[in-house]
Every structure is written in C-alpha cells, then in structure tokens.
Amino acid sequence: MQPEKLLKNDATVVKQLVESVSPPRPELAKLNRTFGEGARGGLTIRSFLSSNAIRSTNSMDEKQIDLCSTNNSTPCMLQSVTVPLLAVAHQASFQNLIQEVEFNYLNSKSTDKDFIVVEGSMTSIGACTNCAKPASEYANARRNFFDYTAKWINERF
Length: 157
Hints:
single chain, four-stranded mixed sheet
C-alpha cells in the first residue's frame, strides 16, 4: 500500500495511507479454515484449481505471482484495459478490499485512471454502522460516492 486519495465525509479529498475501519469478524475465522465454507465455498478442488488458483513461487511477493496463470484474474485482465478507469474502494468493506482494488488499479494499462477510497463506506455503499466511530461520522458516504462518480464520468464523457 501507498498513500492514496481518501474521500472524506465532508467531501474533501486527502492523500494518505488508508486503513480499513471495518470491525474484525472473528466468527469467520473458523469457516475460513475449511475449503467448503471459506472464500471458495461451493467449489470442488478440481474446479478451484482449474479456474481460481494462481501460480506463484512465493505468494508473499507480488512480483513472484503469475497473475495470468488463471482465466479468473482481474489484475491480469486489467493489463489490457486502456479506457478510462475509476477504481473505488470502500473503507469499511468487511472483505477489506482496499489493497486489492489498489492492486487492480495499479495493474491497469489505462493512462486515464483514478483510485479513491470512500471514508466509512461499506461495499453496499452505505455508511458503516458498526465501526469504532459512530455512523453519523460517515453519514455522507453514499452521497459522496455518487457525487464523486458522477463528476468523474461527466469530465470524460
């Protein structure tokens, strides 16, 4: 991760390291240990290996991951995207996708691209209601998301 743009609740944009504000969900830990109920629930080993597994010599080093070794890799596909791209991450997403969205953004070939994290926003685009801060501190998350997106689109199309 590197400093990225954070769309604050007051609609200002600051550049900083952005951390998730989503509360931990320890109840998922037990399910994540199983293949059937974890992140790849419903897949057999064979179907997972044929469509979701990615080859790597060291999974902790992004440079040693062969992103194009599967037909289901967003970062690989984005290496061919040249149209304008708006990548949006939600700071309170329970899946904690900020780094994944940032990685996808960085892999895009587009020269006209933007990455923004919406403060206190969940994947549903609503304000986080069970974060450490009161939901009122994220009350504008949905409006800010749509206003920013509309402005971005209108500047290009």
